[in-house]
């Protein structure tokens, strides 16, 4: 049996103190899920708090979003996400961090998630993330004490994109800047362009537009390891 793929969703539903709601960005889950599901992988979901994950970017005019949202099995899974303690990292070929602004508040400091990712990676698995999902990568350390992103080519939601959506002063930190601080070799394209970077079993994408290609690149990395 093929190993499974674990998708990480934020549990955080507020954009700072703006009063505006957020959560995981729907297309950043549905599009990679569609790639994984079509390839025959079982996908499980984990979030910092477990239970129902808040959703943002809710657009059912996107047919892939609609397909995912109306799939009873997977809809049940996102309404009942696992906590990190419920996950056995040995069962997973990859861990994928979905974006959405909520991730900026609850991914970075979650040690249980970071440990899961470290174990999957050091089991020869793949780590991937899109948009704000790489917030989950900033504090992952490997057994050798180095940050996961140190010396690797990495991509994520850029400082320019954060400014474009006028949240650069609301988020707790700028993701691009933090990744560079951690030693990442940051790559990027112009705002809202598709950009995917792959380096040493770490796959990262810049924005919602890159989600499908991040799914495809993650699958390609998994298939290489068989």
CATH-defined superfamily: Class I glutamine amidotransferase (GATase) domain
- The value of Rg in angstroms is 16 Å
Indicate the percent of residues in helices.
Answer: 25-40%
| Overall geometry | globular
Please describe what this structure looks like:
- One of its GO terms (biological process) is methylglyoxal catabolic process to D-lactate via S-lactoyl-glutathione.
- The chain is α/β, with parallel strands linked by helices and 226 residues long.
- Helix content is 31%, strand content 16%.
- The chain contains eight helices and ten strands.
- The strands form three sheets. The protein has a six-stranded mixed beta sheet, with helices on both faces.
- The relative contact order is 0.17.
- The mean pLDDT is 97.
Give the SSE map:
Layout: E1 4-8, E2 24-25, H1 26-38, E3 43-46, E4 55-56, H2 63-69, H3 72-79, E5 92-97, H4 103-106, H5 111-122, E6 126-130, E7 153-154, H6 159-164, H7 175-181, E8 185-186, E9 196-199, E10 202-205, H8 211-224
Helix pairs in contact: 1-2, 1-8
């Amino acid at each position: 049996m093929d190993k499974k793929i674990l998708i990480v969703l934020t549990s955080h539903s507020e954009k700072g103190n703006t009063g505006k709601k957020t959560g995981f960005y729907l297309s950043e889950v549905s599009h990679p899920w569609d790639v994984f599901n079509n390839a025959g992988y079982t996908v499980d979901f984990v979030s910092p708090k477990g239970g129902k994950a808040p959703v943002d970017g809710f657009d059912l005019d996107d047919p892939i979003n609609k397909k995912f949202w109306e799939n009873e099995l997977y809809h049940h899974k996102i309404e009942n996400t696992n906590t990190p303690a419920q996950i056995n990292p040995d069962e997973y070929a990859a861990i994928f961090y979905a974006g959405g602004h909520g991730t900026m508040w609850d991914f970075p400091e979650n040690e249980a998630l970071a440990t899961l990712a470290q174990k999957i990676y050091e089991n020869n698995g793949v780590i991937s993330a899109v948009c704000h999902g790489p917030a989950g990568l900033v504090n992952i350390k490997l057994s050798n004490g180095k940050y996961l992103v140190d010396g690797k080519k990495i991509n994520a939601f850029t400082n320019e994109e954060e400014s474009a959506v006028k949240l650069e002063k609301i988020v707790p930190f700028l993701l691009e800047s933090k990744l560079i601080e951690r030693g990442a070799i940051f790559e990027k394209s112009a705002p809202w362009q598709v950009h995917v970077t792959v380096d040493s079993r770490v796959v990262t994408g810049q924005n919602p537009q890159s989600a499908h290609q991040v799914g495809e690149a993650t699958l390609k990395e998994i298939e290489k390891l068989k």
